Amino acid sequence: MIWFVTLTASLAQGVRGRVVDVNKSPIPGATVVVMSSNVGATTDADGTYSLRLQPGTYSLRVSFVGYDSQTVPVTVQAGETAVADVSLAETASKLGELVVIGSRAATARTNIQTTVPVDVISTKEIKNFSQVDLGQVLNFVAPSFNSNRQTVTDGTDHIDPASLRGLGPDQTLVLVNGKRRHTSSLVNINGSVGRGAVGTDMNVIPVAAVERIEVLRDGAAAQYGSDAIAGVINVVLKKNYQGLTASLMTGGSFTNMTYQTPNIAGGTDNHSVSLHDGRVFQFDISKGFRLGSRGFLTVSGQVVDRERTNRSGEDNAPTIYLGASGGFPATTALPAAQRPQLLADDATLVRQRGYDRRNMVVGNSSARNYGVFANGSVPLGQRSELYFTGGVTSRSGTGYGNNRIPVSRTQQPLTADGTLYYPDGFLPAIKATIGDQSLLAGFKTKFGQWNMDLSNTFGRNQFRFDVENSANASLPNSSTPQTAFYAGTLSFDQNTTNLDFSRLYERAGSIRSLNLAFGGEFRRDHFVIEPGEVNSYSGDPNKRVPLAPLSLTGTSPGTTTPLPGAQVFPGYQPDFAVDKSRTNVSLYGDVEGELFNRLLLDVAGRYENYSDFGSALTGKLATRLRLSDAFNLRGAISTGFRAPSLHQRYFQNISTQFVSGNPSNTLTVNNDNPIARNVIGVDALRAEKSVNYTLGLTGRIGRSFTFTVDAYQIDITDRIVYSGGFNRTLLGFGANDYPGVNLVRFFANAANTRTRGIDIVGTERVTLGAARLSVSLAMNFNKNLVTGINSTPLIDNPANNEGKGGNPDNWFKNILFDRQQRGYIESFLPRDKQNLIVDFTLGKFNANLRMARFGKAQFLTNADPYAKDASGNYYNSQFARDANGTPYIDQTYSPVVYTDLTLGYGLTKQLTLQVGANNLFDVYPDQIYLDPRNALGSVDYNSGRDQSNRSRFLYGSNQGGFNGHFLFGRLSFSM
């Protein structure tokens, strides 16, 4: 069919031609529009275009971002094809990319002319590689942005937490076409980046719908409101687009995973596993339509089908069928001298049943994503316009939890005769169903010289949890137990109404381009937790189940209490159901102008009032001094805030979190819960506040080299964090209080932080004969530091700390914000990141090389390995140490470099073929430390000695992932 369309276009009467720059190099993607009509086309990789037209005289408008547009006349004769070649000259701003974010002025400036740093990521950069999600695209293009896929983290397996400048997912505001985008309904509570935060799911926006992405790397709460502490990401959708583009991409991981494990003889075993998984199929399409003579409509859709990946190691639990869960029984039940026989008996059962110790899925979850977005505008006369944007996305996927081995009797369902329903254990799964809908409608008009913009934006996100291949061990024994459960649904919706006014004065005395802007916003947030079915969370608190035998012929040595709720994800209980909302009213003002043709100033202020926690006033002063025609000095100082999300205020649940390789049911209580308020003494949540400083130098050297260097400091007070786990015994729970719950966590304004860093971006574009070469190098160096802990009198009470004595890990002030929580902020993300992108074009051939370097990162364990008792002995003596006493568990991961290569060729004017490889050299990050004392067959086993979860987790996900070599092919069509 594509061949037929191509042939038909080439034979029809009309006009054809080639669009080039002044060096005769082709300009792919240029827009050619027949004036006063809805007929148009875009140029292919060779810069050529063709239009089918009836005989007559026409005016063609040819344009491309960064070039001066041209209008050329053309006459079409009957039965003939006219030729109209066009040469476009670069505008002075081409190499800087035009942007408008960060300013209320409508004046487009380049990113070396703005008062604050802005990155512009074009469609070409988005589509040249194999990433099909916006979050992953940004992760490998923008050095100050991190968004890594998580694994075995419940709902976070399906929504990637993102970080800008090392801050939390909820400290970056996401806009679509300059309007606030709603956040996800999911709050991250498992062990991942952004723990305790609520981010925006950018992956629901089809890549095909995006024209460019603008990343504002500066505090902007005074301009755009809450959440913009780290900066703003503005996704600009296609507009005034004509023609049809579509692409089909498929690929998969072809990797050789090598790793080492310790053996019982004191050496190491080398492993090499050849893997082919993670197949990705993606199809997207975008079609532009004319609405009347000046209106437009662009409809874009995307289908992504992604298989799971698995990079797990083998379970080194000492026993699978006999003994205790993930370790040995206490010596009172089994003397240490009998452990060798227990290991031998269990090994016999492992061989007889053919048990595979690679019993987990550690990698990308599977996902199937369908999304459609529409973006359009309809003029109303010469001074008014209706505009609209709408999107609907549906995504479903499956992620996996920790494998429940047969010996884990608190988790195993029993048949009617008391035997295990899953005799070889089971791997429970969480099936996520995510729905996302948004609608933006607005009206723009002019009253004299004043511009008015009235808009309303509605967005909703739902996250449904279903548990599969699971069980509720606390239900009555049955030969046909329930294995699938509906565990509940999270929902969040937001409605935002904006009214904005602005006016541009070309001259106001000595001030040029004076822009005045003011306006207001009304927003309503709404958060809902819908409980799951009864069997997903309930159970018999008095039920007892037999422990596993201690020998091949032995009987159970006793009984234990099974954990209530569906394994892997207990459902939301009715007591935790939530239906809460709040409103927010804000007013802002913004003045921007250039003095003496040299000094650009921008002053902004914003007042916000929330119905649930009060008001906030923020301000910003930004400036750019033109030192010369080539160099600019810029800087900004601003205050910011982030209102506590409704999720953080009201979320409650019980989840299964694994601690040192063993399951522990964790109760998360909301801020109003008596446990948080009365037992622990936590205050009501309040807004985070920040002060942001930026100072930078930008410029152009020669004809085509541009650079920006920006240093920054962000001070945040009252930062909201997800606490450490308070043991039920420490909190004084009775035997019947919260059956099955081991730990309690909550949200609190517990930390003050300081972030310092520097961003460096340089770009060079040159012409090499008939070829074009573009080179871009971007670097970020970042340091986060916790500068203070905000506690409560109860938590600081010496009776709950030093007065308790014993291991400091059990002191309240250390549990509130433990070492691991501090590590997630200070060291878990790479301290630096660099991106090098090289784009080479020669005729119909195009090559793209990208190298992303993720700097070193460090993991900190929550148990303090340095704490000593009065005799100088370590409290946590389970950790191995080097000769200096440094624990291996506080592991520092070396920098890792990923290299991506894509080769493209224009088969015809309409068809382009690309083939490529991500992670060309099949690089993996450093392996997680495995304690040699936990080698398979050890009689001295302790799963808490390292962070490998019984050696099943081999790599961390904080340095770009660990899926290895990925090959892909893409076929693109445009007309």
Protein described:
This protein has 10 helices and 47 strands. By secondary structure, the chain is mainly β. It has a 22-stranded antiparallel β-barrel. A 5-stranded mixed sheet has the order 11-16-17-14-15. Strand 25 and strand 26 form a beta hairpin. The longest helix is centred in the middle third of the chain and has 15 residues. It is globular and about 95 Å long. The two termini are 13 Å apart.
Helix count, DSSP H or I runs of 4 or more residues: 10
Average of pLDDT: 90
- Give the biggest beta sheet: 22 strands, antiparallel, barrel
Compute the CA-based radius of gyration.
Answer: 30 Å
SS class: mainly beta
Helix content: under 10%
Strand content: over 45%
CA(first)-CA(last) distance:
13 Å
The counted number of beta strands is 47
**Unreliable spans:** 1-11, 92-96
Principal-axes shape call = globular
Please supply descriptive tags for the structure shown above.
single chain, 975 residues, mainly beta, 46% strand, disordered N terminus
Tell me briefly what this model is:
With 975 residues, this protein is mainly β. It has ten helices and 47 strands. The chain has a 22-stranded antiparallel barrel. A five-stranded mixed beta sheet has the order 11-16-17-14-15. Strands 1, 4, 7 and 8 form a four-stranded mixed beta sheet that branches.
